[in-house]
UniProtKB/TrEMBL annotation:
A biological-process GO annotation: menaquinone biosynthetic process
SUBUNIT field: Homodimer.
Manner of cofactor binding, per the entry note: Binds 1 thiamine pyrophosphate per subunit.
Database matches in NCBIfam families: menD (TIGR00173)
Residue ranges occupied by any Thiamine pyrophosphate enzyme N-terminal TPP-binding domain in the UniProt entry: 10-120
The protein, known as: 2-succinyl-5-enolpyruvyl-6-hydroxy-3-cyclohexene-1-carboxylate synthase
Gene: menD
Cross-referenced HAMAP family: MenD
Cofactor(s) for this UniProt protein: Mg(2+); Mn(2+); thiamine diphosphate
Length: 581
């Protein structure tokens, strides 16, 4: 049997378990893994030279496919470069499978090149870390490798999904002889059957009793993938029971005249009287992290009497508002559908009427606040004779997005501006953002990975610092033609000019902001992208239809703005929040 047979069998097991995509960063120690995936016809293999970028490309692919994507890299510092993407995947609950080649452990601390302590290198930011045996001659080694890889694939997908690390020590020779055939042997697949999460009848009775005892009920949706089933369930609850449903742009609710989406504007500079009118008795939360500080601050300062968080198979207590009373282990969509059915049945049996009560007044208060917030933003963005700003540019882009496309929002100001603008539900846009750790380090790479995984258009809105930080995303592989990059270039880290604290310090520039003087023209040319430049609002209006039209190349639109005009506009917005609507 060839000495590298366990590596060949490991890769075949990936295919048998339904994995289709691999991202490889070239290296010598990892050669057996690379050759095994390259020669397996069941895998799509993409090459990214920069491991940090490769990690985020794989994350973007796994976001859309909801299946594990495999990452392969060589030993040493290459492994550490995966860490930012691994941390983001862990907190965003994205399945990744990390195969890191390693030196045999006896060579650690022996001045051997590219040798670091890789066992457990990602710490608590992976669901589990495996270290495979380095010697393949014993039958127990084959058994251990098969069992560990089966377990790792399963674990990456078990709720909550996330990254799993497999460290693979490999001895020389790394490369097969010319006459050696890479052919899988007998590969054992260990199937794990999912359990169905069901709440008991007694539990449902208790929940319904608490619902009945609560006059003012509110549902808050954190970051969540676009789901028509979720939207239907939330719409039914809101319409039938006068329950406000709140969510930011990353919740994928969309504006429809029913859901409350201008939360950041609503909850800034509230009086105690206004806050009291919006305070719920029962708060039900689903989804992952929230984008803005205002939402978190409001529910901490004005806590609900009861707070339920609905999460399938919770592995820890998420008590973000410090008032959690129930952690409900259930799939949110199934929970809401069952809730609707039970409430409808209960209403029918009790012969309850639909006369307005306190819950209707509560619902109306949130609706009125949302409408006033929308008017404030609209008024600000439609003021005559104003220059093109980051905010107005983002607003124009969002209104022109093709229906049924994907939107990737980079961190820092782009995701915040998009949240202030919002999207219409009938646009049916799937919104994605790296809000697990919320770093700028892989936003461009994530969008490239997402575009590789779909035929639909993927639009990334990104700031200049995040773009230039991550432009290796455009280096290694052909950039997919369905990618559109909207680069908002204000020549600085604009967020530090706006947030309280650094914006008032004399050291703002250059210690917080990062002026650079770069444009993306040459980067676009090097990557083979169609490049557009824009400085005026009217120019942007005329460019967008061409920019979003199908083409045989990816496109980059660079919008140049003035950071001082951006700052002045945002200051006017903040000042307007203390005035009558």
């Amino acid at each position: 049997m060839p000495i590298l047979q366990p590596i060949v069998d490991l890769v075949e097991l990936l295919v048998r378990r339904g994995i289709t995509d691999v991202v490889v960063s070239p290296g010598s120690r990892s050669a057996p893994l690379t050759l095994a995936v390259a020669r397996n016809p069941g895998l799509r293999v993409r090459v990214m030279a920069d491991e940090r970028s490769a990690g985020f490309v794989a994350l973007g692919m796994a976001q859309l496919s909801k299946r594990p994507v495999v990452l392969i890299c060589t030993s040493g510092s290459a492994v550490y470069n995966l860490a930012p993407a691994v941390a983001e995947a862990f907190f965003q609950q994205i399945p990744l499978l990390l195969l890191t080649a390693d030196r045999p452990h006896e060579w650690l601390h022996q001045q051997d090149g590219q040798t670091i302590d890789q066992v457990g290198i990602f710490g608590t930011h992976v669901k589990r870390s495996y270290d495979l045996p380095a010697d393949y001659t014993h039958a127990d080694s084959h058994w251990a490798i098969n069992r560990s890889v089966n377990e790792a694939i399963t674990l990456s997908q078990l709720t909550p999904p996330g990254p799993v690390h497999i460290n693979v020590p490999i001895r020389e020779p790394f490369y097969p002889s010319p006459d050696e055939v890479f052919r899988p042997g007998a590969v054992r697949v260990i199937e794990t059957l999912p359990a169905e999460l069901r709440l008991s009848t007694e539990t449902w009775r208790r929940l319904l009793d608490d619902w009945d005892d609560s006059e003012r009920i509110l549902i808050l949706v954190g970051q969540h993938v676009y789901s028509s089933a979720l939207l239907t369930a939330l719409r039914t609850i809101s319409e039938e029971f006068n329950v406000p449903v709140l969510g930011e742009i990353t919740a994928n609710l969309g504006e429809n005249g029913l859901f409350i989406t201008h939360t950041d504007t609503i909850l800034t500079q509230l009086t105690d009287e206004q806050a009291a009118s919006l305070r719920p008795d029962l708060l039900i939360t689903i989804g992952n992290s929230l984008l803005t500080r205002g939402l978190k601050t409001f529910f901490r300062r004005y806590p609900a009497r009861q707070h339920w968080h609905v999460q399938p198979a919770p592995d820890r207590i998420n008590d973000s508002f410090q008032r959690l009373t129930r952690l409900i282990s259930a799939e949110p969509i199934a929970f809401l559908q069952q809730l609707v059915n039970d409430l409808d049945y209960q209403r029918f049996r009790q012969g309850m009427d639909d006369e307005p009560g306190e819950e209707s007044e509560f619902f109306t208060a949130w609706q009125r606040a949302d409408q006033q917030a929308a008017k404030r933003v609209y008024k600000l963005l439609t003021t005559a004779n104003q220059s093109l700003t980051d905010w107005s540019a983002v607003q124009q882009v969002l209104t022109q997005l093709p229906v049924n496309s994907h939107l990737q929002l980079a961190n820092s100001m782009p995701v915040r501006y998009a949240n202030l603008c919002g999207l219409q539900e009938n646009q049916r846009i799937s919104v994605w953002a790296n809000r697990g750790v919320s770093g700028i380090d892989g936003c461009l790479s994530t969008a490239v990975g997402a575009a590789l995984q779909t035929d639909q258009l993927v639009t990334l809105v990104i700031g200049d610092v995040a773009f230039f930080y991550d432009r290796n995303a455009l280096w290694s592989a052909p950039v997919p033609a369905n990618l559109r990059i909207v680069l908002v270039n204000n020549d600085s880290g604009h967020i530090f000019r706006i947030i309280d604290g650094p914006g008032k310090q004399p050291e703002l520039e250059p210690y917080f902001e990062t002026p650079h003087g770069y444009t993306a023209r040459r980067t676009a040319e090097d990557a083979g992208l169609l490049y557009h430049a824009c400085r005026e609002a009217q120019e942007l209006t005329s460019l967008l239809p061409t920019f979003f039209a199908p083409s045989d190349k990816a496109q980059l639109l660079e919008i140049t703005t003035d950071k001082y005009a951006n700052q002045e506009q945002f200051q006017r917005y903040k000042a307007s929040l203390s005035l009558p609507a």
